[in-house]
Amino acid sequence: MTAITKSYNQLIDKLNFSYFGLISMTILIGSILGGITAMMILQNDAPIWELILCMSVAMTNNVVAIGQAPTKWIFNLFALEVIVCVLLILANTI
Question: Whole-model pTM?
Answer without folding.
Answer: 0.86
